[in-house]
């Protein structure tokens, strides 16, 4: 059983920063990608940023320059540093873990709320 636990969400004023963390535990082999997605009310879940096992990162265009994804110091952890936050960044942020080879399995965290006030 694989579990993902997110932390670091909260309420922040526009222009502020937050750092999200995600820790994966359980029977984890051959991690492909860890990433962050978000879902605002009435909208589809969208990619924020991801990092592959080889360290290559990928960002949604609108997040480049403001958000930084990185591996945590602990094994199987990933962080998302979010700077210059805007009210439009308000959403539930989800951590995603993709494991396996040819047919990877995806796991999701329960989500953490990020609210940016104007």
Task: Please tell me about this protein's structure.
- The chain has 118 residues and is mainly β.
- Helix content is 0%, strand content 58%.
- The chain is built from no helices and eleven strands.
- The strands form two sheets. Strands 2, 4, 5, 6, 9, 10 and 11 form a seven-stranded mixed beta sheet that branches. Strands 1-3-8-7 form a four-stranded antiparallel beta sheet, with no helix packed on it.
- The termini are far apart.
- The mean pLDDT is 93.
Task: Provide the descriptors you would attach to this structure in a database record.
single chain; 118 residues; globular; mainly beta; seven-stranded mixed sheet; four-stranded antiparallel sheet; 11 strands
Concise account of the structure shown:
The chain has about 120 residues and is mainly beta.
Counting DSSP E segments of at least 2 residues, the number of strands comes to 11
Overall 3D geometry?
globular
Distance between the termini: 40 Å
> Number of DSSP helices?
0
**Low-confidence parts lasting 5 or more residues at pLDDT below 50?**
none
The helicity comes to under 10%
Give the oligomeric state. Answer: single chain
Largest sheet data:
7 strands, mixed
| Series of H and E elements | EEEEEEEEEEE
Report the radius of gyration as a whole number of Å: 14 Å
Q: Please state roughly what percent of the residues sit in beta strands, choosing from under 5%, 5-15%, 15-25%, 25-35%, 35-45% or over 45%.
A: over 45%
Mean pLDDT: 93
Structural class assignment: mainly beta
């Amino acid at each position: 059983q694989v579990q993902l636990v997110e932390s670091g969400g909260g309420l922040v004023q526009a222009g502020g920063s937050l750092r999200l963390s995600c820790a994966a535990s359980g029977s984890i082999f051959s991690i492909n990608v860890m990433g962050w997605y978000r879902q605002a009310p009435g909208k589809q879940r969208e990619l924020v940023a991801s990092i592959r096992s080889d360290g290559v990162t990928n960002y949604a265009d609108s997040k480049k320059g403001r958000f930084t994804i990185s591996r945590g110091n602990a094994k199987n952890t990933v962080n998302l540093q979010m700077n210059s936050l805007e009210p439009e960044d308000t959403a539930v942020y989800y951590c995603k873990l993709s494991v396996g080879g040819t047919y990877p399995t995806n796991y999701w965290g329960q989500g953490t709320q990020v609210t940016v006030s104007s």
